[in-house]
Design brief:
Elements: H1 2-53, H2 96-99, E1 110-113, E2 121-130, E3 145-153, E4 162-169
Antiparallel strand pairs: 1-2, 2-3, 3-4
């Protein structure tokens, strides 16, 4: 009788040890995937920023002479012009690369991204006029400063949405 109780106790202890070991392995894998998702999300955001930054400042910006801000697109219509829109969210191969010609075309742009290791990244962009003093604050005035904010999320591995921004000047 005593050996049976000891054997049952040992089985319970071994079961608890196995469950804890499995929990550690799962937590380790989850932490690894979350870290990888953060790195990939920052790469995705930087890819869009790099893509947008080579575009001209504004559809109506002239690169041959200095012009007043009155020529630029109004703050409430920043985004793709006629002929540039396409179905969003954009998926690979990304049409924004060939269809967008200026920085603010990325306003309200959405992209779904799949990497070699994970699928399901959602990307959303916001472009707004700002000032040199406050590049992260929206202004309704047309200025020589525009800020692009790129938000990247993942439903499983990013607890918080990643936000990376870049400011472009005329």
């Amino acid at each position: 009788m005593g050996q049976t109780i000891i054997s049952a106790g040992l089985i319970v202890l071994v079961t608890i040890a196995v469950i804890n070991a499995n929990r550690l392995v799962i937590n380790s894998q989850t932490t690894k995937l979350e870290a990888q998702a953060r790195l990939e999300a920052s790469d995705i955001a930087m890819e869009i920023i790099t893509e947008a930054r080579i575009r001209k400042y504004d559809e109506y910006a002239d690169t041959l002479f200095y012009q007043s801000t009155g020529y630029f697109t109004y703050y409430n219509v920043l985004g793709p012009e006629t002929g540039e829109p396409f179905t969003l969210p954009d998926v690979s191969p990304y049409q924004s690369r060939s269809r967008y010609d200026d920085y603010d075309d990325y306003n309200n742009y959405r992209r779904t991204v799949a990497t070699t290791t994970m699928t399901g990244y959602s990307v959303w962009c916001k472009v707004y006029y700002a000032t040199q003093t406050y590049p992260d604050k929206l202004t309704t005035s047309r200025t020589y400063v525009k800020t692009l904010e790129v938000y990247v999320s993942h439903p499983l591995y990013l607890e918080d949405t990643l936000r990376i921004s870049m400011t472009k000047t005329y």
